[in-house]
Amino acid sequence: MSAPAPQRPFDDAYFADPYAVYARLRSERAVHHVLLPDESRVWLVTREAEVRAGLADVRLSVNKQHASTGYKGFSLPATLDANLLNIDAADHLRLRRLVSKEFSPRRVEDLRARVEQTCQNLARRLAELLRTDGVADLVDVLATPLPLSIIGDLLGVPDRDRRPFANWVRMMQVPDSPKDIVDAIACIHAYLLDLIELRRNEPDGNLLSGLISVRDEGDQLSGDELVSLAFLILMAGLDNTQHVISSGILTLLQHRDQLAAIRTDASLLPGAVEEILRHTTPNHMAIRRFPTEDIEIDGALIPAGDTVLLCLAAAHRDPRRYPEPDRFDVLRDDKAHLALGYGIHYCLGAPLARMQINVALATMTHCFPRLSLAVPANELSWSRSFRSHSLKQLPITLEPAPRR
Ligand code: HEM
User: Fold this and answer.
1) Per-residue pLDDT tens for 191-207?
2) What is the DSSP secondary-structure string of 125-140?
3) Radius of gyration of the chain (CA)
4) What is the pLDDT of residue 71?
5) In this model, does residue 397 exceed pLDDT 70?
6) 297: enclosing H helix or E strand
7) What is the pLDDT of residue 400?
8) 3 Cα–ligand 1 center, Å
9) Of all atoms in ligand 1, which is nearest to the CA of residue 151?
10) Which sequence spans correspond to the domains of the chain?
């Protein structure tokens, strides 16, 4: 099949309802040649079987060195490129083996008490705001500070540095101009280099100290690998967890019968978290991939070096895979999803992400039984990015107590 003229799917209609656009694309073909808002041409894959196969296809490299068409998307500075999401095959296997030792289930369980305590403190602050102001922004008060605080713990950021660290992260996430992003990345990069030196001399038992000292048959992480990994943990761990907590709570508030069921039976919560990950996938796209040789997807010939975007959010609503895919159903039988990836790049932080989301939702459902949205859902503001779909704010309030 010769390449059809590229479509421009990421228009205003898309940002108003991305799932409607995915449904149209998916019904036409599994893969489309499209133009991104920055005019770069990519291949967008939307059907579940093809997205899953793409994630597992070793001919689809995440390494930018394989891009032949001048990939223009988001890139980190070259010094931060020695990270798991920019390498494949033996290089990836070596690095992943080294770092997996430190991402053990035991370490995640060790963090549970800390996550619960942090959640309780944030819930107290939220209750106070709701009492004094009547309204609070859940993104600002819980969904952002929880993962940020836990990542600060993982990296061993000393208390005195938490505020500037949070400010740089905010500047990177909510920039006033593109220059803010570049400046914030430079500040975080410089800070992480200092932090690695600090933890080399003063290990504190946290993840970063563990990564500094990890050894495997004489092999260890290089300086570039350490700082790149620390940066990746920050980037991958913060945004996604934040988005799942906020959009998860929004979804539950919009499905009050299911929220009530979870309140009555806490054993439904882990399944609800998986359904939230499927239904409100934070990362709409997997990281861009580049074919190392010409490949064919659903009859389309994709030349080596082109950019391929595997659309996780579209795959999760594919009726070929999920019955009534747009319906949110915490009791759904088939709960498997691709929100945490699939194949060799499967999310390293998945157990930690799941634990944090479970604790956050358990705290919210338990402590705030009368929670409700403070504005109509169509007035909520979402990020205008085709990569991730995230709430900018989530204003919440408490419903009046029923009259006795
Ligand atoms: C709900 C929260 C999270 C979601 C939805 C998520 C999603 C993902 C996805 C989709 C990938 C694969 C990307 C691809 O193949 O294109 C990935 C990889 C990764 N994630 Fe997560 N993630 C989350 C939380 C975290 C956390 C908390 C951490 C660390 C503390 C983390 C660290 C990583 C790392 C290091 C990789 C790269 C793994 C590799 O290439 O071998 N993630 N994540």
Assistant:
1) 999 999 999 999 998 99
2) HHHHHHHHHSEEEHII
3) 21
4) 63
5) yes
6) strand 295-297
7) 73
8) 32
9) 30
10) 12-398
Whether residue 2 is predicted with pLDDT greater than 60 in this model: the reply is no
Candidates 208, 247, 347, 359: which one to mutate for ligand 1, based on the most atoms within 8 Å of Cβ? Answer: 347
Ligand 1 lined by 209 (C-beta under 6 Å) = no
Q: Calculate how far, in angstroms, residue 341's C-alpha sits from the geometric centre of ligand 1.
A: 7
Ligand 1 atom with minimal separation from the 281 CA: 5
Which residue's C-alpha comes closest to atom 24 of ligand 1? 237
Closest CA to 251 of 147, 130, 389: 389
Q: Is 340 in the pocket of ligand 1 (CB under 6 A)?
A: yes
pLDDT above 60 for 1: no
Tell me: pLDDT of 298 over 90.
Answer: yes
Burial class (CB in 10 A: 0-12, 13-18, 19+), 396: buried
Please give the Cα distance from 78 to 2 (Å, whole number).
35
Q: Is 25 in the pocket of ligand 1 (CB under 6 A)?
A: no
Could you say which DSSP state residue 261 is in? H
Ligand 1 atom nearest the C-alpha of 92 is: 41
pLDDT of residue 34: 96
Question: For position 404, what pLDDT does the model report?
Answer: 62
CB 392 within 8 A of CB 139: yes
- Report residue 80's pLDDT band, with 50, 70 and 90 as the boundaries: confident
Measure Cα distances from 223 to 79, 210, 252, 404 in Å.
10, 14, 43, 64
Q: For all residues of the chain together, what is the average pLDDT?
A: 92
Q: Are strands 295-297 and 290-291 parallel, antiparallel or unpaired?
A: unpaired
In the numeric block, the tokens 């009368």 are attached to 370
Classify 12-398 by CATH class: mainly alpha
Distance from residue 264's CA to the centre of ligand 1 (Å): 31
Distance (Å) from CA 236 to ligand 1 centroid = 5
Instruction: List, in order, residues 6 or more apart from 97 with CB less than 8 Å away.
Output: 216
Tens digit of each residue's pLDDT (9 = 90 or more) over 330-352: 999 998 999 999 999 999 999 99
Q: What residues form DSSP beta bridges with 136?
A: 396
Residue 117 clears pLDDT 90, i.e. is over it: yes
Burial string for 195-209 (b: 16+ CB within 10 Å, else e) reads bbebbeeeeeebbbb
